[in-house]
Fold this sequence. Notes:
By secondary structure, the chain is of the alpha/beta class. It has 3 domains: 9-159, 3-Layer(aba) Sandwich (Rossmann fold); 170-243, Beta Barrel (Elongation Factor Tu (Ef-tu), domain 3); 274-469, P-loop containing nucleotide triphosphate hydrolases (Rossmann fold). The protein contains 14 helices and 18 strands. Helix 5 (145-153) links the parallel strand 5 (138-141) and strand 6. The radius of gyration is 26 Å and the shape is globular. It starts with 14 loop residues before the first strand and ends with a helix.
Amino acid sequence: xxxxxxxxxxxxxxxxxxxxxxxxxxxxxxxxxxxxxxxxxxxxxxxxxxxxxxxxxxxxxxxxxxxxxxxxxxxxxxxxxxxxxxxxxxxxxxxxxxxxxxxxxxxxxxxxxxxxxxxxxxxxxxxxxxxxxxxxxxxxxxxxxxxxxxxxxxxxxxxxxxxxxxxxxxxxxxxxxxxxxxxxxxxxxxxxxxxxxxxxxxxxxxxxxxxxxxxxxxxxxxxxxxxxxxxxxxxxxxxxxxxxxxxxxxxxxxxxxxxxxxxxxxxxxxxxxxxxxxxxxxxxxxxxxxxxxxxxxxxxxxxxxxxxxxxxxxxxxxxxxxxxxxxxxxxxxxxxxxxxxxxxxxxxxxxxxxxxxxxxxxxxxxxxxxxxxxxxxxxxxxxxxxxxxxxxxxxxxxxxxxxxxxxxxxxxxxxxxxxxxxxxxxxxxxxxxxxxxxxxxxxxxxxxxxxxxxxxxxxxxxxxxxxxxx
Length: 470
């Protein structure tokens, strides 16, 4: 539903008028209004028709919305003017009715609004419906902020479409890291067991905090004797904690890279763990997301021979004006978008000084032969077997696109999603509705996935200060 209703409001069935951008953003939005009714102006159908051509995500969504509408109309037994029940589709518990605009609207649009503009025609429809159903709440639902502002100026109730949001408040987003309280050992030492296995120490603890812990969540205790551990098992009210490998120590470097802070150490423990298939790393610019992911990928691909190659992809959303068509093959077209890859490869290649310039060049050629740059546009239908896949700038993906990418993973493949939800460049996506937020929330607690939010920038003092004050 656009917004959760209180128990008192649910006694009156509301009428939600959908703007076209809602359907083009989420075709299933028709079935997300629970017991309330949905109304589609004729202009909305016209705009769906205008946007159905092409291979973009918007065009695909417009076609899918049209298919849903066709199925609903085909399955209806009564007159279309009486509304069509949405119950028959059985999706998301929808029990309201869907109405189409079947008559011309005679309501007057204010003189200061251009009558030929599609948005203003939809506002005219809503004004007419308010007049016809004076005792019933009529609400416009639109992803367009300016459309909602105009609606409020005309005295029309208007809301954003909230159902696509994984979280209302991104401050509540799972961070993957938890600080243990100062009295942790006192309150959790009863019946505690500890043992060593494979060079790691394990603790089985019981106490008030353990029922709230999630699998693969990191916990740390820095009072007195420090503890850095990961939750490996949950058994009733108890939990098993496993101590971590210290990647801050030079002897444990990964392709010449060491963790510089606590969260980077947590991230490397995930990236190097063969039991973790899906890793998400969030953090602002300069926290080391791409460098850590790439270093771990090179180590496991070239040294451990665990993966056959590294595949890197990202959403091609320009920061400024688009520079137009790019020449060359798929990989050559993607190269301008992969500046971060080149920068990080330069850092990773600096440590190899034993062979001089020739040795560095040979290493660089070897590395580049194992890294493939792919476009998201050609991912449908593919299956990646025994690959190490990095999805950069994942905050610009929709939940549907994210699902399409993750389901490409075949046996032996590890997938890493990197992003910063404070830097979303895709229209209609917000911090709460980003595909990256969606997967972090949905995958938390699964045995073979884990997440870390990187907190501290390590790029330079200038970058850290700019991120803080600008």
